[in-house]
Amino acid sequence: MAKRRGTPHDQGARGPQLLRHGRAATSFDAQPARWNEPDLAARHRAELKAFLRARRNALTPEDAGVPRGKRRLTPGLRREEVAALAGVGVTWYTWLEQGRDINVSTDTLDRVSRALRLSASDQIYLFTLAGVPPPRLLRHPEVKNLSALQQVLDGFTAGPAVMFDPTFEVLAYNALWDLIYTLDAHKGPFARNHVYRLFADPARRRLYVEYDLVARNMVGLLRAHYAEHLGDHRFEELVEALQDVSTEFARLWEQRRTQPLDAFILRLGHDTLGQLTFEVSRFRVEGSAGALVFLGTPADRETAEVLADARRKVRGAS
Description:
Layout: E1 17-20, E2 23-26, H1 37-58, H2 61-64, H3 79-86, H4 90-97, H5 106-115, H6 120-130, E3 142-143, H7 149-155, E4 161-164, E5 170-173, H8 175-181, H9 194-200, H10 202-207, H11 211-226, H12 233-245, H13 247-254, E6 264-270, E7 274-285, E8 292-298, H14 301-317
Parallel strand pairs: 3-7
Antiparallel strand pairs: 1-2, 4-5, 4-8, 6-7, 7-8
Helix pairs in contact: 3-4, 3-5, 5-6, 6-11, 9-12, 12-13
């Protein structure tokens, strides 16, 4: 949605071959099947409209420093209040939220982001939908070493290690990750999808001590990648399947909250290993069509001791 004619003046090839643990897998297709360009542009405008409206409704007047007044019919801010906070015209902001083809710039989107109290990942999502490159400081942290990714995961012996594509389909993992998550224990078209298993697999659901926190976090990560892959049939089919299988996912998805790839404390209750606590580091892999790597480091002595014993048993069985 970069600059267009006839609008108000601006106010303000395939990724590398990767390995799973013990077998080959192909990374996320860098050029997946998509709708034609007019349809895709309409999808971007519709998602931009829904995203801005959801975030405006989620911001209370008290949080924004705006008087609530006595005749407020909406739980969140009014459009004119967002425009005033952002220092842009009411008509311009209204047209932006309606998804019209208008002139937008980095400066005006940045001001709208601050007015709506958007996080860094929310800002990236907004800029991507609007067709404006995000400022350099907002871009995703990335690493540049693409040699021997499976060996890196296998060499990470402190805890579980896994690599996903942007839809959270599992691409590669080490033995400890499979010991904890038992990838092949579930069957079906989305059996290898980490987010789908979170909502559709009762055994996987029981694994998480703080399930609600993990669910919000993972839906936020999935949403953060959605803008870059809007119109991709694989992504759309996954979202539709999740909405069909889980009303909880549907509710979280409609909130349109994104989540950055920051460190995360993960608490698990495993059937045989017992209580486990990890500090999970998460980052994108540059040049791999959007692959993500999660590394779990034991956050307490008990977890470290349990995993040390598990490693000895894994080595003995191999």
